[in-house]
């Protein structure tokens, strides 16, 4: 709040990459717009998108919230993420609680048999959120395992004869956290609508 007030007093713009672009997208937009309303600071939302099939349509709702806030005096602008996929580490599929304390602590939790069921369930839910294991493709590894690149989690699960969640955990462990995926999490129809 104090930073936004200072930025407003200096004639600047508060640019935000939203804290959540999936299940809490609309709440994240409300937070940012509320900050603009309270402080008078111009607000810019970067990379508007709705990740995960259950959230498709929320980017359009978010755009309407932004338009409405402008009629109420909030100086708000937005740019769009124009793709139906994004790339980040596979660890996106595992909650922050498991990753806290750094890489070694994270890898130790992934290997802990007492946490295995909890982590696997969480990974499965996050894979499902993004439309299933066929919509997540390996894009980069830390090792020489270039043979993984271009394969979906679904294909790897079939090749390895294990669940998609176990594939994710095993690959993160093998790559010591350094494995990236391309997540086809956005709705192409919504993306195109926002572009128009």
State the gist of this model:
The model has no long low-confidence stretch (mean pLDDT 95). This protein has nine helices and six strands, in the order αβαβαββαααβααβα.
Strand order of the largest sheet: 1-2-3
Beta strands, count: 6
Helix/sheet category: alpha/beta
Largest sheet: 3 strands, parallel
Which range best describes the helical content: under 10%, 10-25%, 25-40%, 40-55%, 55-70% or over 70%? 40-55%
Subunit organisation of the chains: single chain
Calculate the mean pLDDT score and round it: 95
- First CA to last CA: what distance? 34 Å
- Low-pLDDT residue spans: none
Strand content: 15-25%
Rg from C-alpha positions? 19 Å
Order of helices and strands: HEHEHEEHHHEHHEH
Account of the 3D structure:
By secondary structure, this protein is of the alpha/beta class. Helix content is 46%, strand content 15%. The protein is built from 9 helices and 6 strands; from the N terminus they run αβαβαββαααβααβα. The protein has helices spanning 2-9, 25-39, 58-71, 96-99, 103-111, 116-129, 153-160, 164-174, 188-195, and strands at 14-17, 43-48, 76-80, 86-89, 136-141, 179-183. The strands form 2 sheets. Strands 1-2-3 form a 3-stranded parallel sheet. A 3-stranded antiparallel sheet has the order 4-6-5, with no helix packed on it. Helix 2 (25-39) links the parallel strand 1 and strand 2 (43-48). Helix 7 (153-160) packs across helix 8 (164-174). The protein starts with a helix and ends with a helix. The mean pLDDT is 95.
């Amino acid at each position: 709040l104090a930073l936004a007030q200072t930025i407003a007093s200096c004639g600047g713009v508060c640019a935000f990459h939203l804290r959540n672009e999936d299940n809490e997208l609309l709440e994240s937009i409300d937070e940012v717009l509320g900050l603009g309303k309270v402080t008078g600071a111009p607000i810019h939302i970067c990379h508007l998108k709705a990740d995960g099939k259950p959230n498709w349509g929320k980017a359009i709702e978010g755009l309407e919230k932004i338009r409405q806030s402008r009629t109420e005096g909030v100086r708000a602008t937005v740019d769009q993420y124009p793709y139906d996929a994004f790339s980040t580490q596979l660890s996106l599929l595992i909650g922050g609680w498991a990753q806290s304390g750094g890489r070694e602590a994270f890898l130790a939790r992934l290997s802990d048999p007492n946490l295995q069921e909890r982590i696997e369930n969480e990974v499965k839910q996050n894979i499902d959120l993004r439309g299933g294991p066929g919509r997540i493709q390996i894009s980069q590894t830390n090792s020489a395992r270039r043979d993984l690149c271009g394969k979906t989690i679904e294909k790897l699960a079939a090749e390895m004869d294990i669940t998609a969640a176990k594939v994710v955990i095993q690959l993160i462990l093998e790559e010591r956290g350094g494995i990236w995926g391309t997540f086809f999490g956005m709705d192409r129809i919504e993306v195109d609508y926002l572009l128009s």
